[in-house]
Amino acid sequence: MDGRRRSHYQLNDDTPVYVISVAAQLSGLHPQTLRQYDRLGLVSPDRTAGRGRRYSARDIELLRTVQALSQDEGINLAGIKRIIELENQVAALQQRVAELSAAVDGAAAVLQQREAQVHASYRRDLVKYQPPVAGNALVVWRPAAQRRQGD
Predict the structure, then answer these.
(1) Helix axes 57-71, 77-121, angle to 10 degrees
(2) Phi, psi at residue 42, to the nearest 5°?
(3) In Å, how far from its chain's centre is CA 19?
(4) CA dihedral of residues 70, 71, 74, 75 (deg, nearest 10)
(5) Which of 8, 18, 68, 86 has its CA 20 to 30 A from that of 75?
(6) 21-25 LR contacts (CB < 8 Å, sep 24+)
(7) 3-class DSSP state of 53
(8) Is the distance from CB of 77 to CB of 42 less than 8 angstroms?
(9) Could you tell me which residues come within 8 angstroms of residue 55 by beta carbon, excluding any fewer than 6 positions away?
């Protein structure tokens, strides 16, 4: 390194980096349309300290989706907002299912480990009980008093 300190920014699809003019250009929409979508709650960009909007790559993709639903499918903005809300709800539920599934898998692994420990602690000289199998054998039993008289 050259002695200068470098910042390590993690850029991903949710990082707000685009100002409204760039976001409008990337999405193919007018900046005023982006402001209207923000007011309606369709797309909610992050804000800077000076209240300027900053859009992420995910916001740009959502803007394109809103535009396609509006122009190509003929869905009104209220309907689009409901679709977005439902999609967000589905994503949250899928995330919760994944979390719960991981928890169940973890609990099952712990249970199997404990079961293996119990089995390992068994005494090897004990024989596992097996119930008798019904067969053709006939067992005759006489009470002790009858055996003495008849013997």
Answers:
(1) 130
(2) -75, -45
(3) 32
(4) 0
(5) 18
(6) 22/55, 23/53, 23/55, 23/59, 23/60, 23/63
(7) strand
(8) yes
(9) 16, 17, 18, 19, 20, 22, 23, 34, 43, 45, 46, 63
Please check whether residue 64 is in contact with residue 29, taking contact to mean a CB–CB distance below 8 angstroms. Answer: no
How far is the C-alpha of 97 from the C-alpha of 105, rounded, in Å? 12
Beta-bridge partners for 53: 47
Token representation of residue 63: 């803007």
Give Cα separations from 103 to 43, 93, 114, 117 (angstroms): 33, 15, 16, 21
| pTM over cut 0.90 | no
Residue 83 and residue 41 in contact, taking contact as beta carbons nearer than 8 Å? no
Q: Counting every residue, how long is the chain?
A: 151
The pLDDT tens digits along the chain (151 residues) read 455 555 566 788 888 889 999 999 999 999 999 999 999 999 989 988 888 899 999 999 999 999 999 999 999 999 999 999 999 999 999 999 999 999 999 999 999 999 988 888 776 666 777 777 777 766 677 777 665 555 5
Chain Cα centroid distance, residue 39: 30
Copy the structure tokens of residue 120: 């390992």
Q: Which amino acid is at 79?
A: G
